[in-house]
Amino acid sequence: MTKLLVTLIRSTNSARKNQIANVEALGLRKIGDAALHENNPAVQGMIHKVSHLVKVKEVEVEEAAE
Fold first, then answer.
1. Of 44, 47, 52, 65, which residue has the fewest beta carbons closer than 10 angstroms?
2. Residue 66 confidence (pLDDT) above 60
3. What is the mean pLDDT of the chain?
4. Which ranges constitute the DSSP H helices of the chain?
């Protein structure tokens, strides 16, 4: 399963309100903060809106067999 590691690399000081809301919805507050999210269309849309503020990396995550 692939997940997306999203890292805030630029400040939201000069960003629009909807961009700030997307950054907060992604769980990012300060520069350097990172969050792991499922790779789905909703998250991809939020990342697209703030692509100039964040860095995205695909990460392979192994789930434990239960």
1. 65
2. no
3. 93
4. 17-25, 41-49
